Structures are given as structure tokens and as C-alpha cells.
Amino acid sequence: MPVFDHPEFDHHQRIVFGSDEASGLRAIIAIHDTTRGPALGGLRIFPYASDAEALTDVLRLSRGMSYKSALADLPLGGGKAVIIADPRRHKTPELLRAMGRLVDSLGGAYITAEDSGSGEDDMRLIAEATEHVGGLPRHGQASGDPSPFTAWGVYCALRSAVRHRLGRDDLTGLRVAVQGVGHVGAHLARHLHAAGARLVLTDVDTAALAHLAEELGAETVAPGAIVDAEVDVFAPCALGAALSAEVVERLQATVVCGAANNQLATPEMAQRLQARGILYTPDYVANAGGVIEIAWQRRDDYSREAVMAHIEGIGATLGEIFARAEREGQSPAIVADDLARERFRPAG
Ligand code: NAD
């Protein structure tokens, strides 16, 4: 299994393989970059088919966290951890405590948090063995659900994109298609509704869709029809890779801004959107509200107002990215990556 020649290897500072015979733990922690601070990133528990698959995931995800934290202006680097296990069958307290010891052995260079397959209860078990756990609320409501913060960030991002592309601050009558009305999508839809936007919603969960549509008086369409909706903004808030070549060709919107991770099915989609005159909002910039809140939980001066104000900064960061993208004739996706690298790997 090559590591230094792996396609996803990007000068990661440390990659640690850990195991514990008694609990059956098999885990990898990747620390991509700690220039800005300790590497924060969630713990994914997933029954990977092979060690190679787990390594690919942890290398890619840890690198992504360096970019996200840098553009969210956090004093944090990028890292990620994976446990090769089925979270429904193999997640035992012993396994999580062993994971805590592995995290602890890195002396704070890596801070863990929730990700798919791990939740707040798991973080409490990990915290029995290490203090380097970021996903446990110390302040405010211990809801453990970052989605209201993520949604507020996406809303601020969307306002910034609409200001740049459509030249308007008032969202009254703005038409927005929201793909996926789960945790983040539903909160986003409510913010948009309160600002006077006209919504077209979809979800494969027809009951949740009908419920929200009634609450907001919104139109609904079948999942396959959302990309054809006659709207100004398309907000992908369901799964990754929503922006395929076919979708990009069909989109009626001139702005894309949503919560989903890894929206571009391939990196070339950034250029295709650009060629069609559609402003793409880099996903990891727009959806950083949750990680911003986790970072604030580590501070003693936490306040909800300060968290929300920091999240609102996403709008200004995107304003900078959109302006530079326009000057350089580049996609905002490329400019965001460049700007992030300038922040965590400054020249010299
Ligand atoms: P969620 O599971 O609560 O919501 C996703 C919704 O999408 C569900 O209601 C699901 O039924 C729906 N869906 C699935 N496939 C669909 C399809 N083909 N068409 C339409 N709808 C479909 O997840 P979430 O927490 O709201 O997160 C949404 C996205 O945002 C994910 O990509 C997630 O990785 C990303 N994200 C979330 C957060 C957060 O704070 N929750 C933070 C950063 C990024």
C-alpha cells in the first residue's frame, strides 16, 4: 500500500496507523497540516472494504479540513481519523476508549470530533481517555447538532453569491431550489423563507418534504426535476457529487450555493459551471458553520453572538473569493483552494 506515492498524499505531516487487539480497533489518523494550529477533524467509523480504501478516505478528508479551517479563519489545521468497523455492530465502549488512547498518544496535534458513524455519546467515551476531543459542547445548549450553525453559514454564503452575481441584497422574490430538506436544508429553507425568497423544494423523503412545504407554503418537485426548476439559485443540500456534467448542462440557476460536501462530481465541473456563466460557491467555504462552532466550544469566551458573527464572516470571505475569481477569470473553486493554501502554507 503506497503512502508517499498515493494519489491523495499531499505532504501530510503525519499518518498514524493504530490497533488494539483486545477491542479490535483498527484506525488511521492523518494530520495534514498544523501550520495554523492543531489538526481538527471528525472521526469516521465505516466498514471499509480494505485498508487501502480507508487510507484514501483519511488522506482526502484530512487535507480538506486544512482548506476548510484556513478559509473559516480558524486557528486550526486539518486532520481526520477513520476506524475500519461497522458502527452498528462493532462500536463498543472498549473500542472507543482504545481510540481515545490513540488520539491521546499524539499529544494534542490531532483533535477529534463527530463525523459519519460517530456521535456525541461516542465522543464522551473517547474523552475518558483523552482531552483532545472537540465535538463535546462545553458552553450553551448541549444539542450536539451543528446543522443550525451550518445552515446559517450557507445562508450568509448564498447572500454573498447573490450580491455578487445578481447585484441584489434584498432576497424578496428570489427563486431558490433546495435539493434535500434534511437537517441543514430545512433550516436554510426557513431562513430563505423569512427573507422573502420563493422556494422550490425536493427530497426523497416525501413525508419530510410535504411537512416543510406546508409550513413554508413552498412548491415541491420530484427529486429528478429539481435541477430543471426555473430558479435563480440552486442549493444542493443532499448528497455529494450533485453537480455532474449532465446536471450542469440542465441547470436554470445562475448561482449554486448549498451545504453538501464535495458537490463537484469531478474538478472539471468548476470550469463547466464557469463556462455556462453559473457562479459556483465553493462548498467547504459555505458549509463551515459547524466547524466554526466546534472551534468556539474550545474557547473560554464562547458566546452564541460571537459564533454567529464569526459564521457571518463566511460572506465576506466569499466576497473576496468571487472578486478575485472575476479578476483572474477563474472559477471560485480554484481561487478558494489557492487562497486556502496561501493561508496554511504561506510562501517561505
Ligand atoms: P441529512 O441526512 O439530514 O439531510 C439530507 C437530506 O437529503 C435527507 O432529507 C435525504 O432524504 C435527502 N436526500 C438524499 N438523497 C436525495 C436525493 N437524491 N434528492 C433529494 N434529496 C435527497 O444531512 P444534513 O446534515 O442536512 O447534511 C446535508 C449535506 O450537507 C450533506 O452532504 C452533509 O455532508 C453536508 N454538511 C452537513 C453539515 C451539518 O452540519 N449537518 C456540515 C457540513 C456539511
UniProtKB/TrEMBL annotation:
PROSITE patterns given in the database record: GLFV_DEHYDROGENASE
GO biological process: amino acid metabolic process
Binding site for NAD(+): 180-185
GO molecular function, one term: oxidoreductase activity, acting on the CH-NH2 group of donors, NAD or NADP as acceptor
Keywords from the UniProt entry: NAD, Nucleotide-binding, Oxidoreductase
Signal sequence extent: none
Highest taxon of source: Bacteria
UniProt-listed SUPFAM superfamilies: Aminoacid dehydrogenase-like, N-terminal domain, NAD(P)-binding Rossmann-fold domains
Record's function text: Catalyzes the reversible oxidative deamination of glutamate to alpha-ketoglutarate and ammonia.
Family membership: Belongs to the Glu/Leu/Phe/Val dehydrogenases family.
UniProt protein name: Glu/Leu/Phe/Val dehydrogenase
Organism from which the protein derives: Halomonas urmiana
